[in-house]
Amino acid sequence: MSYKVALYPGDGVGPEVVNEAKKVLDTCGLDIDYTMIDWSTKLYKSTGLCAPEDYIDQLKPYDAILLGAVGNADNAPDHVAVEPLLGMRKGFDQYVNIRPAILFPGVDSPLKDKKPYDIDMLVIRENTEGEYTPLGGRHYIGTPNECAMQVNYFSRMGTERIIRYAFETARKRDRKKVTSITKSNALKYSMVFWDSVFNDVAKDYPDVECGPMLVDAAAMNFVRSPENFDVVVCSNLFGDILSDIAAIIIGGMGFAGSANINPTREAPSMFEPVHGSAPDIAGKGVANPLAAILSASMMAGFLGEEDSAAKIKKAVQEHLSEGKLKTPDRGGSNSTAEVGDDIAKRI
Ligand code: GGG
Question: 62, CA 20 to 30 Å: which among 105, 124, 324, 330?
């Protein structure tokens, strides 16, 4: 099969890590026709936008998008920089954001006594609505009555489909367990609704162990007992925050790949490292490319190239187990390209 993939490196360290992800994919010998998308905050100065107005139309024909990172506060406000990223998730109905957190052999967790694979969870984040819905407004700006409103929008369709996706995913895993992240003790409309949809859907999956957990308790338990989590299903904002905790306990943001999936395949899905643009180290060639490489592995798997996906993941595992090459975020002095070369060589 041949595929059309849009490479969207974006800002900061994005181009450096996407370059390594492409290098690794090339080694797999996949028939991919790449198009380089040169949109970033640099565009903002000339156009007031970080991507052309018709960016959804331009990206629609691709099978997948491989994104690096967005954001550089020197060039554009962060909420403008992130617009194309959130816009792709919504515009392509990529309603599932999968963020795996696995403690690989050879990687030190900041948590005491954690062995390889003690942490092996999937954070499944609702990606198109919830707290990220662009509904609200600012009023009476500059007066003592100034106020801001941001509406949390939870539809039955949107809530049910993400929870169902989490159960379907859990069913295929060994532990078959879903934890639903809530805050229904305080958010008496949105999260009480979320809980009731969760309870309805759970009835269809008697073979899956499941239950709710308040988001504050989950933040604590990700650190205290991460081995108790398997699949974790969250609203958009809760998933954003908890997946960063999940990343840090498996060794850092440098290991956190992700997939933004439209399961219907009627529009492209997008793959990106969870980390941002890290402008402080951009251009120095020292960013950890593993999160982007693991995202590329998820992309290969989504495209149906399971063999290549597994080869990339195995190469990353071997590279980490050997532990010879490390970028500075892991206490080493190797470059982004040296790590990418090592993974490619192993494939
Ligand atoms: N790698 C993509 C990236 O730059 N993410 C930065 C970010 O702030 N994303 C917002 C979000 O995931 O909700």
Answer: 124
Residue nearest to atom 13 of ligand 1 (CA): 240
* Distances, alpha carbon 41 to alpha carbons 12, 75, 286, in Å: 10, 6, 21
Instruction: Report residue 94: phi and psi, to 5°.
Output: -80, 75
pLDDT, one tens digit per residue, over 188-220 is 999 999 999 999 999 999 999 999 999 999 999
**CA–CA separation, 1 and 21 (whole Å):** 20
Confidence band for 74, pLDDT divided at 50, 70 and 90? very high
- Closest CA to ligand 1's atom 7: 276
**Can you tell me the distance from the alpha carbon of 136 to that of 133, in angstroms, rounded to the nearest whole number?**
9
Q: How many Cα atoms are found within 13 Å in the side-chain-facing hemisphere of 343? A: 36
Q: For residue 200, report the distance from its CA to the centre of ligand 1, in Å.
A: 31
Which of 218, 119, 198 is CA-nearest to residue 156?
198
Among the residues of 38-155, which ranges form H helices?
Answer: 42-47, 55-59, 78-81, 83-91
* pLDDT of the residue at 277: 97
Of 63, 240, 311, 313, the catalytic one is 240
pTM for the model: 0.95
Q: Phi then psi for 332, rounded to 5 degrees?
A: -105, -170
Instruction: Provide, rounded to the nearest whole percent, the portion of the chain with pLDDT above 90.
Output: 99
Ligand 1 contacts (CB < 6 A) are 67, 69-71, 82, 85, 240, 272-273, 275-277
pLDDT in the model for residue 170: 98
Mean pLDDT over all residues of the chain? 97
What pLDDT sits at residue 45? 85
Is residue 183 annotated as part of the catalytic site, yes or no? yes
Q: Which of 208, 212, 161 is nearest to 191 (CA)?
A: 212
